[in-house]
Every structure is written in C-alpha cells, then in structure tokens.
Amino acid sequence: MRPDLTELPSAKSLADQILYHLTHTQGRGPEFATVFDWRLAVSYTIRDLIVTPWMAGHRASRDQKLKRVYYLSMEFLIGRILEDAIINLELEPQMEEALSTLGLDEHEILDDEPDAALGNGGLGRLAACFMESLSSLGVPAFGYGIRYEHGLFRQRFEGGQQVEAPEDWLNQPHPWEFVRIDYSYTIGFKGHVETVDGQSTWLPGESVIARAYDTPVIGWQGNWANTLRLWGAQPTNLFDLHRFNAGDYAAAAEPEALARTLSRVLYPDDTTDQGKELRLKQEYFLTSAALQDIIRRFVAEHGENLAHLPDKVAIQLNDTHPAIAGPELIRLLMDEHGLSFPEALDLSRRTLNYTNHTLLPEALERWSTWLMGQVLPRHLQIIQMIDDDHRASTHRPAHVAIVQHDEVRMGELAFIMAGKVNGVSALHTDLVRSTVFADLHKLHPDRIVNETNGVTPRRWLRLANPPLARLLDQTIGTGWTGDLDQLDGLKAHAADAAFLEALRDAKRQNKESLSNGLLADLGVKADPDALFDVQVKRMHEYKRQLLNILETIALWHRIHASPNGDWVPRLKIFGGKAAPGYWIAKTVIHLINDVARTINDDPVTSKYLKIAYPPNYNVSMAEKLIPAADLSEQISTAGKEASGTGNMKFTMNGALTIGTLDGANVEIRDLVGPENFFLFGLTAEEAAQEKARPGHARLAIEKSEDMQVALQLIAEGRFGRPEHYYALLDRTWNDDPFLVASDFDDYFACQRRVDAAYKDSRDWDRMSTLNIASSGFFSSDRTIRGYMKDIWKVG
Ligand SMILES: *Cc1c(COP(=O)(O)O)cnc(C)c1O
What we know:
This protein has 33 helices and 24 strands. By secondary structure, it is of the alpha/beta class.
C-alpha cells in the first residue's frame, strides 16, 4: 500500500498506514503491539512521506548539475527525529487525530524515541540546525559524520557526583536510516610511502571499510530533504577463518572488533584536545570517506575533469576535527587522479572552508609529527609540502608554520587550506583576527569572514514551545516559522495588555508542565510563580557555573539574615555534563548538588530559593527547560564563549538574559535593546587586563563580603565534606583563571536588578515580548544564507 503523495494525507490515511506498517514492517498485530512497535510504525509512516521529496531533490540536483554543499562534522547533536519530521510536514493535527483514533497516547510515543546524541554540545547542535535549515532553504547538501554506536555518555548523580554510563541508542532498530552497501570506501592507515619516478604511492598497513548510512533530513513544509550520511566502520575481512578453524574464536574475531572501534564511541571531550591515536583515526576515517564519496559523485555527474571541482563542490569543515581534509584532498587529486601538486593545492583551497569555534589554546588541535607520521605517513609529507609552499609564496614568519616543535598544528593547516575561514559571532570573529590567527590574517586579509550562529525556529520554537507558537500564529500569522524576521511584528503588541496577558499565560503553562513533569520526577517541589532561572550547557570553567552557585549561596545567606524580607522566589535550574576527566567541572557539579540538598531542605528559605539539577541534559531536556525559563544565564568570562546558541534559544522563547559581553550575547543585546538585557561584568579587553594583574582573585575577594561569605560557608562544610572543595577553593583564591571573583559583585548586584524587574510583571512581559520580537536574526536560516553568499557561492 502506497501513501498518496500528491497532497497531505488525511488522519484516516495516516491511521491506515500506521496499521499497515505495524503489521507488515513490525510484524505485530495491534493487540500485541508495544509502544516501541507503535513508534516504529508511526516513524515508517512519516518516513514514507519524506522519501518522495528526498528522491525528487536528488534527481533535480543531478539533472540540473547544481553545486552542492558538503558539511563535514565529527558531531551531529540531532536529538529526536519523529516530532520534528511531523512538524516540518505540517501533519500535526492529522497525526494527533490518527493516533487518537488508534487509541494511542501521542506523548508516550514521541517520548519513546531515544535522542540521537552524536555530539557534545553547541558545535554538534549547530551542525544539526544547519542540516535542517539547508533542507528548509532547498539547498542541495550532504552532512557527513560518524555513526557512533554510543553517543554522548548518559549522566547520573551518585552522592551528588557525576557518574557516566554508556549511551546505547543503536541497541534497538533505528527507523530513520537507509544503509548503502554499495557506497563503501576503503580507508587506510599506517604503512609506508613508495616513490617511483616522482610518483608517490601510499601503501597502508591497515585498512577498514567505511559504509554509508543515510538519514533524510526534511525541511520546513516538506518540499526538500537532504541527506545526513553517517559512516560506520566495517572490517575489510570479517573474521580470520584460519584462526577460527584452529579453535581460537576470540582471536578470529579480532580484526572485526578492531575495525568497529573506529565508529564505536563519540569522544566525550568538550573543547579540549584529546591527543589520542584513535581520535586521529576517527577524524581521518570521516574525512577520507566523505572526500572519496564527493569525488565519486562529482565524476559521475560532471566527468573526469576535476578542474571544475570548485564550481560544483563547496566543503565546510566544522572546526579543525576534519582539517586533515586539506592533505587528503590533495592526496586524492595528486596520487589517485594524476594532478600536479600546484593544481591539487589550488583546487583544494578553492573547495575547502573552515569554521573556527574556539579561542581556548587548550582546544586547538595538535598532533605530534611522530603520531601523524605513523598513522598517516603520506599526509605528513603533503603537510610539509603545503607548509613549504606557504612559506615560499608568502614569506611568512617562522612562527606561522604548520609544523612546529614536532607538532602539526591543525588550526594553521585548516586556515592555510581554506578559501574562507569564519568565526561564529561578531566579537569572536574580531578576536580570531586579532589573536589566534593574527599573523595569518595579515597575510590573507580577505580570508576571515563572520557568520553569526543561529538555531532552527522549527525545533526551538514551534516544536519546543506549542503554547507560544499558538500565540504567535494568532497574533502575527504562521509565516514566522519559515521567515523568522516576521517576529518583528510583535513589537506592535508590546503595549497590548491582552497580548501580554496571553504571553504570561503561555509561559505559565510551560512552567507548570516542567514543574509537574521533570521537576516533580526529580523530587523538587517547584512553585510556577517563582522566577525560573536557568543555566544549561556543558560544564566548563569558562562558562562559570561556579559564579552562579556562589551567588546562590550568598543570596541564601542574605535571606537567612532577613527571612521576612521582600524576596523574589527563585528556582535555580542547572543542567549539563562534564568531560569525564575534567576534575574542576566535576567538582562544581558536586558542589551544586551539595548546595541543592542543603538549601532545598531549609525551612527558613525554601519558599524563596530552590535548586534543581536534573541529570543527563540533552536536546530533549533542552526542549522542555528553555520554554519554561524566565531568566537565561549566559555568564561566561568575556572573550571565551565563541558564540553560544543556547543564548539564542532562550531569547526566542521569551526569557530575558543576564549575561556578559561575550559571543553572540553582544548581538542579542544590540538587537533587543540594552534596556531589555541584564548586563554585567568585565569586557573582553578588561578581562584580559585583569587576568594579567598579579593577585587579581585575592584582591577581588577581599573587596567582596558576599563572596567571602559564600567561600567561607563551603570551607566550613555547610554543604558537604569541605575537603571535597579545598582544591577548588584554593584555585578560586589564588588563580581564578576565569575571573569569577572579579565579576562577582557586579553579577550579584545585577541579579538584584533582575529581582526588582520581575516584581513588575507587566513590564517584565513587555521586555520578554521585545526579546522574542528581536530574535529573528538568530534563525539558522539567516546563518545559512550568509554562508551561501559569502563562502559557498551557491543559490
Ligand atoms: C543548544 C545546546 C547546547 C549549546 O548551549 P550553549 O549554551 O550555547 O553552550 C548544548 N547542548 C544542548 C543539548 C543544546 O541544545
């Protein structure tokens, strides 16, 4: 039975299709079906509707010989797929009706889907938003990534401390993907290079097969779908029959186990470099498979003349993780397709582009030349050739070399091999020009461009916030979903009492859902009238969750001192994971949980102050927390957060921001207006100066009574065993690299301004309206249009 593809299916036909798939694909009758069976039947029903535009788009791109965009990323933090697909196909009402005629609970079915957590945080989520926007804009594109069997670890708390458990989303059938056994590529490692008559050939000592698994990504209104192609590793020989016949079963399976390791786990590191051989192999595995696939498709569509590659192919490298693409593309063009080095270099540079995501020195990837020479001997030679060419053609100073102190510097490699290099917010791009790549910028003044990040309004507004989406539809029409600038129309309603009332009501519904769901499950009794103050993001020192929890302690102490004061009730919500080996971040998690236990049980203060830290923050949890937030905490040390995208999601959902002048906060504040944004803290420039001042932390703490009290209470053991926190306290007094102390008093005072503002609920709602109304710029559709025009030259 085939779905009718010419028009949107009715509820009746959806219900028929669901029953069809339940029976014929799942092999279950309705009387025996589990929630899982039903979810798969619903997913296959929706997938059928995506396949038609998907194939049509492929045909059109091929027949019209369109230029394609290729987005290479080690991470795609997708989250759940089903509801997003239903929304983009505009099938919500029909699906709701279909499920209710089948006697099914829609929420139960949607909640059954595991998150595809193939990323750590912002960088991976950006890649997922970009894939959705590329499809919504009808740009022919592929995303290339790795099909990790285990995504980002699951976080639990034991005694308040983070415990990591493996994530196992592929432990059950994944209904969205299509395996392509005909698109398989051999990926080599190690071995040696033979050169005969100037022609070099790499003879790898090991190899694995990269196999393609395709997931269609449907765009808004269902007109176009692109492919997310994830590579799974397969052994070149399934198993060793000789060993098997000799009875050594474990050894016989070894080649398979070794190969599969490559796509086994996502590295749980966030922004710090993991100098591990396996990680380098994973990066090369993704990159080589993607480039081989791109060249195969180019030749199939445009013939053997690779000189036209840059006219038909634009490749974007999401951070330096796939930066081995430079030497790999040169190797393929030179060693496998017979081009000269200068030709290969020129074509590669006109095809590749690189997005920088961080200025933190510890996060800039470097590989020892020893390891690079072991794992990728031919690439090390080519890197040397690229470096020599760059020196000869630019007379660059020695400290700009790619290879330095026996290390290959992937940032320099990516920059030198890119047509365009972009930063991800206005401030970040300025800092890229003036700090990390200052010398390269002088040599190549037109190469660095800015593309401020964005998020997709389909998932982060329409899907995540139905009460607000309904209100927007009623107030300004439905066009905002595909054209977020239309939110500007809300400005006319910022003084309209009925609208402000309705906005308050929408926020209240989200706060109640959160209180009765997630927070109740956690055992936190939340008052939906309290100010919901939310900081959710990876746990990192520069993001300064420590500043937030110290302010909480100081506030708690003040409430104790005058329990009959006019305090504004607050619920502080934290969420986020720490990299497993990052002790400071883990200590801060422990501290937050210890403080929560003490404060939440305090009968004197608990009507004013509570803390909730739900474990395992992920995309699905973000979809629940962000729409319920009144206040968005974006408090990183200025100059450290490249852009942030969480900050944009909150603004779109009507939360006001308390934040520093960092990353895209700067642009948010400019757009919503300084009077509708709670600003505090040092600027990036001031922060750099303050850090250079000897004893800055101690000097600042000695001036701040509130901060002294907070640190003292921890040291006294008021929240748990103080010895857990001695190292953290010592670091705060004596080092404080991210200037928690220097910004403390300003932050504390700013929070009191937030309290005062929240008491005037009408004015708060007006400010919230202006935040939503000004957030159109932060649609990832706008970001993608920027890349198309400035970098990819498509469309
Ligand atoms: C948006 C998002 C992030 C990025 O948040 P920042 O505050 O920008 O660091 C991280 N994780 C998840 C699950 C997200 O949805």
